[in-house]
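Worked Example 4.2. Consider the chain below.
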Amino acid sequence: MAWNVQFQSGVWLPQIGWWLDAPARTKRSFISHAHSDHIARHEEILCTPETARFLHVRLPGRRAVTEVPFNRPHALEFGVTATLYPAGHILGSSQILLQSEEHGSLLYTGDFKLRQGLTAETCAAPHADTLIMETTFALPKYAFPAEASVTSQMVAFCRDAVAEGATPALLCYSLGKTQEVLRALAPAGLPVMLHPEAIRLTKIYEQLGVTFPPYREFNAREVAGHIVICPPHGRSVLNRILGVRLAAVTGWALDPGAIYRYRCHSAFPLSDHADYPGLLEFVARVQPKRVYTLHGFAREFAADLRARGIEAFALGYPNQLDLALA
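Applying the procedure from the previous section yields the following structure tokens:
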């Protein structure tokens, strides 16, 4: 009997009674990482120890949390074994491989990135019969340039702004992207200020063994000559200073008009997600018999896989309308 994969605003596996990154409160859910769109106040949670640390800060409260380190099999009910593997998305982000004699193997990626980052574990690609994969950037136009090149452009943007008496501000999510950019800027030796929310999460990274160049908390009165790293939703603090030069750091920077969408002066395509070539490479490594695509361009990528001879379906869509007639 194959895995029964259902989509009900989230991924539900009725054969074992577990959700995968359920967006609303459930009885039991695996949480791949602690970004806000992947967490909720579930009664029982399965995650890595690192994700549990971030979860405690971002979603305080009492709950039953089972912390499972990478590569250590954990027994669930119904003869199923769960093993967590690095996803390469942010520190502690994980994929879950479920193995059962009755159902075979199922790999759920959560958000992932094959490219090696500076502050996250190297993404794994274990073999699985069934693959449920994130497809945020699943169009051929999303092929990210080399990260060293993007970092070089970011440093040049910041140096130019400071030289002209402006304050460069990089808009980055406070968990994951901020820490990646902070490490990437290290060789430039430029002084950095972090938004208070980013400070709190960066301190947890340090407690978990990640090192960073010097930084300090944002202070509008002493900001001259500094780079400011700030989450997009916290950009109102930048209204306290004059001469701000804004840049968004996001994979969507490849879209035409990104600077207008993000209301900024520049945009840099640095992402913690897999790009289109990375998605194809991941499928080739896992070698699944069946693929379910999720988020972003799920329908388009499922169609691409079918054209390559791989059985694939987009979760949450009426796939029968996409299947070519024999």
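Residues 248 and 262 are 7 Å apart (CA to CA). Residues 147-268 form a domain with the Rossmann fold fold (CATH 3.40.50.10890). Compare this with Example 4.1 before moving on.
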